[in-house]
Amino acid sequence: MRIDILTVLPQLLESPFSASIMQRAQDKGHVEIHVHNIRDYSTNKHKNVDDYQYGGGAGMVMSIEPIAAVIEKLKSERNYDEIIYMTPDGELFEQAACNQLSLSENLMILCGHYKGVDERVRTHYITKEISIGSYVLSGGELAAAVVVDAVVRLIPGVLNDETSALTDSFQDNLLSPPVYTRPPEFNGLKVPEILLSGDFAKIEAWREEEAMKRTQERRPDLLK
Fold this sequence. Notes:
About 30% of the residues lie in helices and about 20% in strands. By secondary structure, the chain is an alpha/beta fold. The chain has 2 domains: about 1-150, SPOUT methyltransferase, trefoil knot domain (Alpha/beta knot), CATH 3.40.1280; about 170-224, Trp Operon Repressor, Chain A, CATH 1.10.1270. The protein has helices at about 20-25, 65-75, 95-100, 120-125, 140-150, 200-220; strands at about 1-5, 30-35, 50, 60, 80-90, 105-110, 130, 185, 190.
C-alpha cells in the first residue's frame, strides 16, 4: 500500500511514522508513506497557501490552487482508491472503515488547516471525508496519523501475530475482554482461575461473556 499525505506542516507527521509498528511496516515494505508539503506547490513568492474568506468572517481558508496542483501531480502518477479529507464534519471513523481502507492499494489524505479548505476542493477532488471525533483539532495531521495507524496495522504481515488485529475491540462490534499476564497474583490481586485452567473452550466462552458484559456496561450503543 502507498499512502500520500498532503499537509502544510509535514514536521507534525515525522514522529508518528518513525517508530514501532508504523516504522516496521515501512521497513518490511508493507506500506510506503509519503508526506507532501503543500507550500511547495504554491506559486506565491511567500509560499502562502491560505487567503481571506469571500463574504468576510473570522479565519483564513486554504486556497484551491496549491492543493489542486499536488493532487493533480499525484493522480497523474497513479490511481487512488480514495482521496480523503480529514475534517470535523466528515464521516465518523470506525472499524468497518478501517477494514475497508486496508484493502486499498493507494490512498491520498488531505490535512485541513485554518478554517478549512476551499469548498471546490471538497466537491471536485475529495472522494471520502473522515472525522475521528466530535471535536476540533488545530489541523488534520494528528487525525491523519490516527487513520494511517488504524489502517496499516490491518495489512497482512504488519503485526507479528496476524490474529491479533482480528480480535481487537470493535471488530465484532464488541469491546475486548479483560487481559492478564504474569504473575498470577500481585498484592492479593489474582488472575481469574479460568484463565489458568488450560481449558481453552471454557476460556474462549469466558472471554466472549466478558466482552459482551464490558460492551453492555461501557458502549451499549455498539449492540444496537
